[in-house]
């Protein structure tokens, strides 16, 4: 049997990290088993579905490194792989189920159905207890699947183990609305049957839908698929990661300078692990080890801070050339213009130091703006914390005098001069160097001071020290 799995996002919003994690697990399972990974678009919600959201979803999947073998924009034997193009097929299946006695028309009004649900709840029964086939032979209205009452729906969930649903806890649910549009249950199941899906790995929140899909597939005479219900994602606050939470969209991480390999690695850890010790691993290692049966049934915590840490680890692992290539747009965006060859050479002298201190790509630009642009304002927090101390003006004045005497302007020559000065003055390194850093770079966050001064040049360094003294004198 060839493993065939799918991801079926709705283009009603950006790609949620939970959906991205589900797509990743499906992709890993397909690649591990030399199977087929399919991307279809569940766009039956015509009012909220947009081409822009679909484009974002597909671009996010590609950015994450998930290629697909069949589906939208790739093709295959099943048309466009968009549900909006398959309405005739869904109506055909619904009609066949009615003809075979597995489904029926229901012309009861919402008020009548509401009274039946209220009666069931009043008796402590499942709300759908009385939503069963009426005695009339109506041929108008919605179409419902008739739930067999002779045995429970039981299946082996690859993550949760044996799951049992009693038929009394399932109502005869609508598969085709009275306006001829399919419900999620019908469209999803028909697609899974038609596309010969063998395994469905999806969020735990969809577990209540699974017995309905199993019964629908049985009514169609189809082979049942294997299910794996993935643990839900929670934020660090202990609450479910809602789609309304801005940082829950994968596009946020694409735009904020995260590396796709780091995000791939981190999402892989949300409910699964390579082994008991390894945190950082390659795609190839994940493919070789992944099995849906190894996924945990416990909720997973999505921690942006841990993801940022992991991203920093991946950035530090880049080659120097690749690092410069990747931060180029962020550096130029921070400076506000295209840099020339001499300026990039200047950046290259401190690039390895910037790389060591970068967790997100935009931080590289923020750290080195001082090399290329003069600044009128100092970082407020840095100034208040560092420059308001007693004795700062004396440190900067003495440093300026000693630096002015250096002819060979290199970090190796600057460092002993400044350290010797602080030792003579009886001032600790942190207390003495931080004011110089703020004076020269405008902030307490920058590459190492001596290399920063060397890259900036002697004239600019002395000029900025003088400017800081002027600011101190006027404050």
Describe the structure.
The structure is a single chain. With 475 residues, this protein is mainly alpha-helical. It has four domains: 4-74 and 233-301, HUPs (Rossmann fold), CATH 3.40.50; 86-230, Rossmann fold; 318-370; 380-474, Arc Repressor Mutant, subunit A (Orthogonal Bundle). It is 48% helix and 9% strand. The strands form five sheets. Strands 1-2-3 form a three-stranded parallel beta sheet. A three-stranded antiparallel beta sheet has the order 4-5-8. It has a two-stranded antiparallel ribbon with strand order 6-7. Helix 2 links the parallel strand 2 (36-39) and strand 3 (70-71). 37% of the residues are buried.
How would you briefly describe this protein structure?
The longest helix has 17 residues, at 458-474. This protein is mainly alpha-helical.
What is the strand and helix layout of this fold?
Elements: E1 4-7, H1 17-32, E2 36-39, H2 51-63, E3 70-71, H3 87-99, E4 103-106, H4 110-122, E5 142-145, E6 153-157, E7 161-165, E8 174-176, H5 184-194, E9 199-203, H6 210-219, E10 226-230, E11 233-234, H7 250-255, H8 260-268, H9 283-289, E12 300-301, H10 304-316, H11 320-335, H12 341-348, H13 351-356, H14 361-372, H15 380-387, H16 392-404, H17 411-425, H18 429-441, H19 449-456, H20 458-474
């Amino acid at each position: 049997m060839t493993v065939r799995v799918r991801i079926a996002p709705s283009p009603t919003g950006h790609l949620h990290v939970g959906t991205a994690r589900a797509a990743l697990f499906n992709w890993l399972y397909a690649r591990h088993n030399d199977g087929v990974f399919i991307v279809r678009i569940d766009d039956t919600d015509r009012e909220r579905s947009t081409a822009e959201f679909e484009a974002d979803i597909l671009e996010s999947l590609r950015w994450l490194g998930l290629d697909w073998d069949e589906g939208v924009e790739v093709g295959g034997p099943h048309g466009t792989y968009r549900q909006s193009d398959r309405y005739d097929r869904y109506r055909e299946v619904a009609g066949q189920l009615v003809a075979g006695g597995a489904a029926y028309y229901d012309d009861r009004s919402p008020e009548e159905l509401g009274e039946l649900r209220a009666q069931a709840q009043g008796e402590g029964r499942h709300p759908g207890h009385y939503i069963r086939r009426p005695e009339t032979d109506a041929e108008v209205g919605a179409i419902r699947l008739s739930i067999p009452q002779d045995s429970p729906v039981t299946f082996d969930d690859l993550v949760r183990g044996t799951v049992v649903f009693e038929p009394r806890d399932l109502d005869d649910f609508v598969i085709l609305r009275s306006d001829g549009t399919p419900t999620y249950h019908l469209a999803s199941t028909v697609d899974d049957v038609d596309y010969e899906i063998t395994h469905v790995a999806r969020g735990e929140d969809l577990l209540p839908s699974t017995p309905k899909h199993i019964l629908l597939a049985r009514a169609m005479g189809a082979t049942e698929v294997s299910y794996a219900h993935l643990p839900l994602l929670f934020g660090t606050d202990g609450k479910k990661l809602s789609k309304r939470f801005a940082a829950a969209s994968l596009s946020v991480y694409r735009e904020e300078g995260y590396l796709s390999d780091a995000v791939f690695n981190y999402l892989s850890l949300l409910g699964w692990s390579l082994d008991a010790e390894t945190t950082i691993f390659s795609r190839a290692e994940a493919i070789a080890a992944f099995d849906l049966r190894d996924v945990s049934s416990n909720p997973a915590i999505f921690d942006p801070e841990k993801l940022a840490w992991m991203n920093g680890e991946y950035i530090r692992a880049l080659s120097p050339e690749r690092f410069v290539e990747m931060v180029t747009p962020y550096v130029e965006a921070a400076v506000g213009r295209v840099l020339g060859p001499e300026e990039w050479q200047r950046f290259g002298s401190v690039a390895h130091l910037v790389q060591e201190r970068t967790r997100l790509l935009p931080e590289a630009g923020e750290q080195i703006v001082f090399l290329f642009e003069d600044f009128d304002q100092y970082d407020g927090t840095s100034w208040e914390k560092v420059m308001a101390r007693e004795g700062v003006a004396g440190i900067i004045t003495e440093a300026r005098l000693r630096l002015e005497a250096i002819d060979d302007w290199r970090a190796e020559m600057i460092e002993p001069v400044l350290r010797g000065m602080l030792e003579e003055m009886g001032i600790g390194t942190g207390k003495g160097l931080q004011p110089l850093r703020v004076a020269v770079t405008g902030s307490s966050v920058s590459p190492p001071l001596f290399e920063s001064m060397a890259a900036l040049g002697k004239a600019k360094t002395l000029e900025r020290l003088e400017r800081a003294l002027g600011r101190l004198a006027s404050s």
